[in-house]
């Protein structure tokens, strides 16, 4: 039996530079998996390969036993929220959220219902008519989250979605993300360089270092049983 989401020996090179090497993991449905590690360690590259923005040099990704690599990005049914995943500035909040459904030719009645439900989920009920420029940074990220979730993708990718926000707002939205994860059961792959954030959010953490995974486990496992000196230093470091 194959896993829900299986990342198999992914490698990515840019010319002479090896960005990612031997990245493998099995992710369970509904799991919250975080890619943690310092800048340049290959976290985003791995996520972009999952999203279909980049092709791996070697390796495979299987969703429900089927390779994703030949499926174009927009057909992978994977939701995405990025640090600067900007909203469409000329579209209202409601139309931003509706966009993935319009692309999929969903009918208007269903669009209205789904947009309403997902805005409720991110606690932005009543904001559909607003323009993005009239929303705070935190609200805009919640709109981006609503847009990513509106078609119920089985997998949601988030690349440092909170790093542009201040600490208080970051902690507030961390709680929101946890609640939404529990409420929807969506499988989340989350990238951060912040070990506190990783420990707070994740079921498991994959700790990246120079394009390789040092260790995969719960925060507790990494903390209590670090496989390498790097893991001990990175997880223990509470700057
Ligand atoms: P992280 O997200 O962990 O900060 P990245 O996955 O962005 O790391 O980058 C891993 C390595 O790959 C870095 O050395 C980075 O400079 C390099 N890299 C990433 N994207 C490209 C690209 N498009 N072209 C060349 N090198 C890249
Ligand atoms: Mg990155």
Summarize this structure briefly.
By secondary structure, this protein is an alpha/beta fold. It has helices at about 45-50, 95-105, 110-120, 135-150, 165-185, 195-200, 220-225, 230-235, and strands spanning about 5-15, 15-25, 30-35, 60-65, 65, 80, 155-160, 185-190, 205-210, 210-215.
Q: Mind explaining what this structure looks like?
A:
One of its GO terms (biological process) is quaternary ammonium group transport. Keywords: ATP-binding, Nucleotide-binding, Transport. This is Branched-chain amino acid ABC transporter substrate-binding protein. The chain is α/β, with parallel strands linked by helices. It contains eight helices and ten strands. It has a six-stranded mixed beta sheet with strand order 6-7-8-3-9-10, sandwiched between helices. It has a four-stranded antiparallel beta sheet with strand order 2-1-4-5, with helices on one face. Helix 2 (93-103) packs across helix 3 (108-121) and helix 2 packs parallel to helix 4 (137-149).
Descriptive labels:
239 residues, alpha/beta, 6-stranded mixed β-sheet, 4-stranded antiparallel β-sheet, 10 strands, 26% strand, binds magnesium ion
Strand-helix topology:
Elements lengths: L4 E10 L2 E11 L4 E5 L6 H9 L6 E6 L2 E2 L10 E5 L10 H11 L4 H14 L15 H13 L5 E5 L7 H18 L2 E6 L2 H7 L2 E6 L2 E6 L1 H6 L4 H8 L3
Parallel strand pairs: 3-8, 3-9, 6-7, 7-8
Antiparallel strand pairs: 1-2, 1-4, 4-5, 9-10
Helix pairs in contact: 2-3, 2-4, 3-4
This protein binds adenosine-5'-diphosphate (ADP) and magnesium ion.
